[in-house]
Design a protein that fits this description.
Layout: H1 3-7, H2 14-17, H3 22-43, H4 53-69, H5 77-80, H6 85-96, H7 102-132, H8 135-146, H9 149-152, H10 161-180, H11 184-198, H12 206-220, H13 229-253, H14 261-273, E1 279-281, E2 284-286, H15 293-300, H16 304-323, H17 325-331, H18 333-352, H19 367-384, H20 391-414, H21 442-453, E3 459-463, H22 467-470, H23 477-480, E4 483-485, E5 494-497, E6 513-519, E7 522-529
Parallel strand pairs: 3-4, 3-5
Antiparallel strand pairs: 1-2, 5-7, 6-7
Length: 554
């Protein structure tokens, strides 16, 4: 379908877009993804280390030892019950390329993590292109994903939620391929993708549920009556193959399940379901999630344009269903799939009172569905343009859309590398009400600032959060050789505070502050100089080794 026929409006560049051939669109897609990869390469070195990266690194080391050397699976609950698939990939890559220096290890891990995000972007393009039958909409879906600061900011250091997001998109795409034509290879590919997802996040168990319901709906409500008894039998056999394949592949990729798989899988599910919940929310530290936790976080961490399109999309789908429910079941089954993809996890969290903490990152996997529903709303808006006779409106609305995307992109560049600390509301509604740098990645920039402005041979630091200890592993050898980490602020020359353990209250005297790291105009980390410090207090015996990874906290 031609680009302008689908949009059916006079965009400012209609005259150009009308001439775009299929070849030109393919070229545009290739250029986009090449540029996205280049962005990843250029941005990769700038991110600090996040809260979970110690645990994830250790999980990968232990998992690979179990796979290769047959070592017993770890008993530490925080790692024992977490899916190790992606961490095994990370650790194996380190070993293959013989990467060992601390900085090189974590920069490599960050880049591979970005590649997992890149994979999700590619498959979201394929999924949207298939659904909307348009390369333009496929590209737009991917552009919205990339220009989602709250998600993109995690792309380099969150090795749990970003790979889960990407593999969820892969699974939905392979599900549609399987539903279009049930073959043994497609069943097995879909099964392996599902197992890999489960081996990263337990939420992957939603995919077999969606698969069974979607395939049965295809059989019960076919768009065209061409199903036969033989096709029923064939599809059901291949669906059984898929389910068996999911079980076998999940056991294969998760060493915890190599012994007593059913029991250990249930133990892992029970552990993940019982984890702590809550966080800093509307100005209070809470220990359980109110029902509106996820909707609020999505709303304040997503550009308002995307949220508006999503609401329009929901309204359009509700209208279509209410008018012709059976036709909707037959002809708009993919939209139902997207609705289930988005709403079922949220409903499950509310009903089962599952624990969610640190914003909404645990449910990033539902965000692509949010975007696809939003694009449904956009398609409806664009089609309505055919009836608009006023040139100012026909040009103005697309221009507003383009300017909104541009402003989001500019914000991301200006606030690099803290894109994930994005809020769609003015900062006066955010400061003192919601989590800010809960990952602690800004400790890197804080240390680098001090090291660049203080020429002392050794500089003692006190940090208020554990990522500040971990971040030494991504500093250069020269920087790290000058860092002394102390566990008492009285022994430190500089104190770095991201305020997380003090409910984001800034209670240190302002006159001691020497610098602040900000994101979106909000202070996320402050550097204070100890007023009682003198250089004779330096104890160089606590200098850090510079040639190996060091963890100082549990």
């Amino acid at each position: 379908m031609r680009f302008t026929k689908l949009l059916a409006v006079h965009w400012p560049l209609t005259a150009i877009s009308d001439q775009l051939s299929a070849v030109s669109m393919r070229l545009l897609v290739v250029v986009f993804f090449v540029l996205l990869l280049l962005v990843g390469v250029l941005a990769n070195d700038d991110y600090g280390l996040s809260w979970d990266e110690k645990t994830q690194y250790m999980l990968g080391q232990e998992a690979l030892s179990t796979v290769i050397d047959g070592d017993p699976w770890t008993q530490e609950p925080g790692r024992r019950f977490h899916g190790p698939v992606f961490e095994i990939v990370l650790t194996a890559t380190e070993n293959v390329f013989h990467v060992s220096s601390p900085r090189s290890v974590f920069l490599l891990r960050h880049f591979i993590n970005f590649l997992s995000f890149y994979l999700g972007a590619v498959f979201l393009y394929l999924l949207a292109k298939k659904h909307f039958r348009s390369r333009a909409f496929g590209l737009l879906a991917t552009l919205l994903l990339v220009l989602s600061p709250g998600v993109f900011g995690h792309a380099f250091f969150n090795s749990r939620d970003i790979p889960a997001l990407s593999l969820f998109v892969v699974c939905i795409y392979t599900l549609l391929l399987f539903a279009e034509k049930a073959t043994l290879p497609r069943a097995l590919v879909h099964a392996f993708a599902t197992a890999a997802l489960i081996g990263i996040r337990m939420t992957g168990i939603l995919i077999p549920v969606l698969t069974v319901v979607y395939i049965l709906a295809e059989l019960l409500f076919p768009p065209v009556r061409r199903e036969t008894k033989d096709s029923w039998r064939r599809v059901c056999v291949l669906l059984t193959v898929y389910l068996v394949g999911v079980c076998l592949f999940t056991v294969l990729v998760w060493p915890l399940l190599w012994e007593q798989p059913v029991r250990h899988f249930l133990d892992a599910y029970a552990y993940m379901s019982s984890k702590s919940a809550g966080g800093f929310f509307f100005g209070k530290n809470i220990e359980s999630n109110p029902w509106y936790w996820v909707p609020v976080w999505i709303g304040i961490n997503t550009p308002l344009l995307y949220t508006g399109l999503f609401l329009v999309g929901i309204a359009v789908l509700v209208r279509d269903f209410s008018r012709h429910p059976f036709a909707f079941l037959r002809e708009q089954r993919r939209e139902l799939l997207f609705l289930a993809w988005f709403f079922l996890p949220i409903l499950a969290i509310i009903v089962l009172k599952s624990g969610i903490f640190d914003s909404w990152r645990h449910v990033f996997f539902l965000y692509p569905a949010f975007l696809l529903i939003g694009l449904t709303g956009l398609r409806w808006i664009l089609n309505r343009f055919q009836a608009i006779r006023y040139p100012a409106v026909r040009v103005g609305l697309p221009l507003i859309f383009a300017l909104s995307l541009l402003s989001t992109g500019i914000w991301m560049v200006r606030n690099h590398p803290f894109q994930y600390i994005y809020f769609s509301l003015p900062k006066q509604y955010i400061e003192g009400n919601f989590e800010l740098d809960y990952w602690g990645t800004s400790f890197r920039q804080g240390m680098e600032y001090v090291l660049a402005t203080d020429d002392s041979r050794y500089i003692p630091f006190f940090v208020t959060s554990s990522p500040g200890w971990l971040v030494i592993n991504i500093l250069t050898s020269e920087q790290r050789s000058r860092v002394l980490l102390v566990d008492d602020p009285k022994d430190a020359k500089y104190i770095l505070d991201n305020f997380r353990w003090n409910n984001y209250v800034h209670d240190a005297p302002e006159e001691y502050k020497v610098h602040a790291i900000t994101a979106g105009g909000i202070e996320i980390l402050s550097i204070y100089r100890n007023p009682h410090w003198n250089d004779s207090m330096v104890d160089p015996r606590i200098a850090l080794p510079v040639d190996r990874i060091v963890f100082y906290f549990e």
